[in-house]
Amino acid sequence: MDRKRLIYLDNAATTFPKPRAVTDEVVRCMTQYGGNAGRGGHTLAMAAAEKIFECRCLAAEFFGVSDPERVFFTMNTTQGLNIVLKGLLREGDHVLISDLEHNAVFRPLYRLAKQGAIRFDCFPSMTGDPRQNAVRICAGIARRLQPETKLVVCTHASNLCSATLPIRQIGEFCHRHGLLFVVDAAQSAGHLPISVDEMGIDALCVPGHKGLYGPQGCGMVLLGKNVLPQTLIEGGSGAHSLEGEMPDLPPERYEAGTLPAVAIAGLCEGIRSVQGVGLETVFDHEKALYRLAREQLSERRGITLYAPEYEGATLLFNVDGLTSEQVGSLLNEDGICVRSGHHCAALGHRALGTPPHGAVRVSFGMYNQARDVEYLCQSLDRIRQEYGGV
């Protein structure tokens, strides 16, 4: 095996490489128009503001939001979820979350619950036959409703496996019952079609650096109509500077401080790159690689796959006789980048029934090829023979 070759299979953490258009625009922003948007009327500040507004409009179109002013930028999905959850919830509220949630959802709610401010419960998402998920998941939510239930929050796609939740049906359920609906799109944005307005989503939290192929350091929240969380961070917004309160309306209400114009400029071109290829084309490519990997690994003794019936961009597995961290380290020696452990998602690992050491995650992007799967399988064969006792 050629151990000098680098195979990147950790796209669920951040996509790599980025499109050339993204890196070119980042450099162009830093060298040609990187003023501080909203902090002055000079040429460079105005040029940066125009690029940020361009990205805001593009994101609104991409995610089905009729008014681009309902799009505001964050540092990442986690910050967006904190703004939304802490801005919408009040003392005494009850929240329902799925059993696949990332710590970006679980930990803010855990802290609020520990402080006695709210209560939350989990509803099951792994209901057997994926074709029955919508009906069964909504039934599971219905059984857990309480008079104080205010909000349902769930991931659209798991960061552990390729399981997805039926957000359109959950959104319809929530609005029939007068509940707010928040979606973590960390693993679905850029992979699956999403329309905030059509799907009844009250807040969609999105990363820029994963499926949208932008730089790290930039995310977005896209608000539904008539949804206005309280602010989590206050400060300069470039507007209404003589007032003590933050502006009443988005996006300035939530964009305190200097925006990451360089990252936003790159994100703008990342969205365009995904649009150029086409969401369906990207996802079909990832699913083809998933199916190839599933077929190859399921034929090998001593490898356990988790939730393999769900097809998408992410595959979770373990090798008998080795911890996930050992497998990840040995793959890295062969130049293969994966992620091992618990992936900041203890709830999901519990739902999937992985062992205490977690599991190994392989996640595909639009730049991966079938030969990457072949190389992964060859490396795992070597690892099993030399270390796994197979």
Commentary on this structure:
By secondary structure, this protein is α/β, with parallel strands linked by helices. It has helices at 20-33, 43-62, 77-88, 103-114, 133-143, 167-176, 261-277, 279-298, 324-333, 346-352, 370-388; strands at 7-8, 71-74, 94-98, 119-123, 149-155, 180-184, 203-207, 219-223, 303-306, 314-319, 336-337, 339-341, 359-363. It folds into two domains: 20-276, Aspartate Aminotransferase, domain 2 (3-Layer(aba) Sandwich); 278-388, Alpha-Beta Complex (Aspartate Aminotransferase, domain 1), CATH 3.90.1150.10. The chain is built from eleven helices and 13 strands. The strands form three sheets. The chain has a seven-stranded mixed sheet with strand order 2-8-7-6-5-3-4, sandwiched between helices. Strands 9-10-13-12 form a four-stranded antiparallel sheet, covered by helices on one side. α3 packs parallel to α4. The longest helix has 20 residues, at 43-62. The radius of gyration is 21 Å and the shape is globular. The relative contact order is 0.17.
CATH homologous group name of the largest domain: Type I PLP-dependent aspartate aminotransferase-like (Major domain)
Describe the sheet with the most strands: 7 strands, mixed
Percent in strands:
5-15%
Mass-distribution shape: globular
Q: What is the domain tally?
A: 2
The termini sit apart by 19 Å
How many helical elements? 11
Q: Class by helix and strand content? A: alpha/beta
What spatial order of strands do you see in the largest sheet?
2-8-7-6-5-3-4
* Cα radius of gyration in angstroms: 21 Å
Q: Say what the CATH topology of the largest domain is.
A: Aspartate Aminotransferase, domain 2
- Strands, count: 13
Written as H for each helix and E for each strand, in order along the chain, the element string is EHHEHEHEHEHEEEHHEEHEEHEH
* Overall average residue pLDDT: 95
Helix content: 25-40%
**What is the name of the CATH class of the largest domain?**
Alpha Beta
Q: State the low-pLDDT regions, or none.
A: none
CATH architecture tag of the largest domain: 3-Layer(aba) Sandwich
